[in-house]
Amino acid sequence: MRKWRRSARKRSWKKLSERFRCWRAAMRRHNRRRPVMRNLWNFGMLLCCWGTAWYWAMNYGGRSAWFCFYGAGLLFIYMGVGLWGMARTGRIRLRSDQTRAWSGEALKLDGQLMLGRGWVPSGWLMLEARWSSTVAGHRPIVVREVVRSSLSGTAAFTFHVPALPRGLYVLDHVHLKVSDAFGLLQFSRRATAGAHRLLVLPQPLTPAARPAAGAGDGVPRRTTPAAQQRQAASPFPYGTRPYTPGDPMNRIHWRSTARTGTLRAKETEQPEPDRLLVCVDAAGGRSNAAAFESALRAAGGLALPALQQGLSVRLAANDRQGQVREARGRESLPQLLELLAQLSCDGEHPVAALVQREALQAGAGIVVVTAQPDEQLLRLLCRLRPRAVHLVYIHGEGMPPDAVQVWRRQAGSAGVGFTAVSAARAGRTAEGGEGHGQAADPTAAGA
User: Fold this and answer.
1) Which of 38, 174, 175, 374 qualifies as a FRET site for 266, CA 20 to 30 Å off?
2) For residues 337 and 423, what is the distance between their CA atoms, to the nearest angstrom?
3) Are 211 and 65 in contact (CB under 8 A)?
4) CB 264 within 8 A of CB 240
């Protein structure tokens, strides 16, 4: 009986939701047809007035009757010319197909509206552009601008876009709304705009939490060839593999051999001190979304000084796509910021799995930026501590100070560098680490 009631409730809710969807679709169709119906109503009323004035003038005569007849006729001709000249589909042309800007800064988009020949100047033109973000959870934005018409059929305009959060915004459509000076005619058409993208880059954190690689350096410094040869002579072990005939005896991992019963050899890698791995935690969904924006800014602030020193920076995230990008040199900073701008906080796997996978290809420096550290991550970083590992902890406003101190003590006992960054004051202060003191290059956005 209970199961039958539950199924009946589900069916009723399903029917109600379907009716609501049908009602919304009908309202959308009605809103689209509203200007057309209004124009037809005005045209019909004016036609009736013109016919009434003609009947009055022909049967009763008089100056007033003929004045109304000719006045209604002129308005009738005016509306006919307006219907022919203003009901045209315009074309929008922006100066660039892709525009870059910094998050939190307003920008202007210049363009040109082309209406073609035979255009009749109207009272006003209004452009309504809708931009949708590819980042999950970001709402689309609508920008409106009033344009002055001219006899040439072309008009220049400027979209004043407010400050936007980081992300990739794609132009969905542009609606052109036209009205005459008397408000008798109104048209709403979708203008041809083409494909345009607006890329809003996150501002690198300034001052950011710059992890210390040994004696307080932000990123691993370049080493001399002699130092690289010494490091290559004693590579770091990061795992074991089955023993292969010909391997030296000092490569045998005796503990794994005793545990498995078969010979196991140490798997080693040659460290590359001119590379830096930055792992961003993109898991957690809405619970991690508040601190995720600050984590992206911190990652950008970490990559900036490394690129300025000529290091190769590898940026990896544990989102659903598992995006990874590597760049070298200061001029390649926008490439990493593009990846940060399009990241979504929708990862399903813990950041420890990402660090373990990327550490096989990483160099000497490993930085993990997360708002949800755990014991598994600390144990993994403890095994990787010969590579100058650092943990950047992004904490929110409601986080008690004791929690930050607990993670700092645990990271210190594991031999891992630690920096705590407040999400509320991400752009001003950083606790437990030195700020890199470098502002982002304004020309990197290339707006």
Assistant:
1) 374
2) 19
3) no
4) yes
Q: What is the DSSP string of 92-130?
A: EEES-SEEEEETT--EEEEEEEE--TTPPP-SEEEEEEE
Burial string for 159-194 (b: 16+ CB within 10 Å, else e) reads bebeebbbbbbebeebebbbbbeeebbbbbbebebe
Whole-angstrom Cα distance, residue 415 to residue 403?
Answer: 18
Q: Output 322-327 pairs: Cβ under 8 A, ≥24 positions apart.
A: 322/354, 324/358, 327/303
State the chain's maximal CA–CA distance in angstroms: 123
Contact 444, 334 (CB under 8 A): yes
For tokens 């939190």, the residue is 104
- Listed in sequence order, the DSSP H helices in 131-284 are 225-233, 254-260
Structure tokens at 301: 């602030």
Q: What is the dihedral of CA 288, 290, 293, 296, to 10 degrees?
A: -30
Element housing 187 (H / E)? strand 186-191
* CA-based nearest residue to 106, from 158, 172, 175: 158
Q: Give the separation between CA 407 and CA 409, rounded to whole angstroms.
A: 5
Number of residues written out for the chain: 447
Two structure tokens written together for 213: 């690689």
The CA distance from 373 to 351, in Å, is 9
Statement: residue 428 has pLDDT above 70 = no
Q: Which residue's structure tokens are 């190769």?
A: 312
196: three-class secondary structure by DSSP: coil
Residues ≥6 apart with Cβ < 8 Å to 239? 266, 267
Query: Sign (positive/negative) of CA torsion 357, 167, 190, 18?
Result: positive
pLDDT band at 267 (very low <50, low <70, confident <90, very high): low
Query: What pLDDT is attached to residue 122?
Result: 62
